Each structure stands twice: as structure tokens, then as C-alpha cells.
Amino acid sequence: MSRPNFDDIYMELALNIARRSHCIKKHVGAVLAKDTRIISIGYNGPPAGTHNCDEEYPTTGCASDSKGSCSLAIHAEQNAILYAVKNKTDVEGSTLYVTLAPCLACARIIYSSGIKEVYYYKSYAEYKGLPSDEGVDFLRKFGVKVEKYTTQRFEDKERLDSLI
Predict the structure, then answer these.
(1) Of 84, 14, 85, nearest to 44 (Cα)?
(2) Residues near 1 by Cβ (< 8 Å), separated by ≥ 6?
(3) Which of 17, 77, 8 is nearest to 36 (CA)?
(4) To the nearest whole number, what is the mean pLDDT of the chain?
(5) Cα within 13 Å of Cα(54), Cβ side
(6) Do residues 146 and 140 make contact, with C-beta atoms less than 8 angstroms apart?
(7) Stretch (H or E) spanning 32
(8) Do the beta carbons of residue 127 and residue 155 sit within 8 Å?
């Protein structure tokens, strides 16, 4: 058995964490790592203490906002960053692994938090029917390294794709 590299471990963990999401529409997971250590994880869903969309609205999910996104959801990236900051963990210089490319709002938070690298598994633009990944474009414009994660690294791509 070969030893997986940390990138593979973190992306596979993000894909598994996405399965914790209560969102009816899309499951997204994120792992925040620094110096080969996981510093935070997150998945998309409503704020803690509110209700879970799959329980409150099991067939339709929560209402959409004016842009067609969930009105209650905190994105996986936001949850990972918020949890780290809440626990006084320094995210400056960290790397984010996320199952869906960051939207523009998340990209602003990622940049402002000092995260230096982002690896994403699937395109947000393709999921939302947009012409480009605005969040990826924003991050690259301001010097954050962003890469679409190549699935050739994984031995069992079909199993991983089935997670999200």
C-alpha cells in the first residue's frame, strides 16, 4: 500500500465531511490545514442553533435568496474559517481544501483571512450555470494560489464522486 500525500488525505476528508451537510440542494465540505495539520473543518448548513433544512423542509430545502442560493446556509469555507477564528486558531498562511470552488463572497473571506492556497474539487460555475468561477478569478487576481483538484490522484474516483 502506498502512502497518500497530505493533499489527497485532506481532499478526501473534505468529500467525507460534505456528507454531514443537512442541505437538500448541495453537500459541500471544507478542510483547513496548516503545516501538515488540520486546523478546522466545515460543511454547509444553517447557523448552529437554528434548524436543519433536511428536517424542517425535507422535500424542498430552505427558501432561496434573490440569487438562488439557500437563504439560511453558511458555506463550508465560512464554517471552517469561523470555527478556527472562534477557537483563536491562526489561519494566516493556511491551505483550504473544498469540494466546490468558492463563490465570490467566500473568496473575499478567504482572501481577507490570509489563506494562501485553495484546492477545489468541482466548479461552482458549472454547478450554478455561471460563465466563470468568480471566486476563483478573484482569488487568483489577488495572489492566492487556486487549483482545481485533479482526480487522477485518487485510486477510486467513482467512490469519491459518489460522496458529493
Answers:
(1) 14
(2) none
(3) 8
(4) 88
(5) 11
(6) yes
(7) strand 29-34
(8) no
Q: What is the pLDDT of residues 16-68, one digit of tens each?
A: 999 999 888 889 999 999 999 999 999 998 888 887 777 777 777 777 777 66
Identified catalytic residue from 12, 55, 56, 77? 77
Helix axes 76-86, 6-18, angle to 10 degrees: 110
* Angle made by CA atoms 15, 18, 24, in degrees to the nearest 5: 135
| Residue 162 backbone phi and psi in degrees, to 5 | -75, -15
- The verdict on whether 77 is a catalytic residue reads yes
- In the structure grid, which three cell numbers stand for residue 154, read together? 485518487
Predicted TM-score (pTM) of the model is: 0.88
Q: How does 45-72 read in b/e, with b if 16+ C-beta sit within 10 Å? A: bbeeeeebbeeeeeeebbeeeeeeebeb
Interatomic CA distance for residues 96 and 117, integer angstroms: 6
- Helix axes of 104-113 and 134-141: crossing angle, nearest 10 degrees: 30
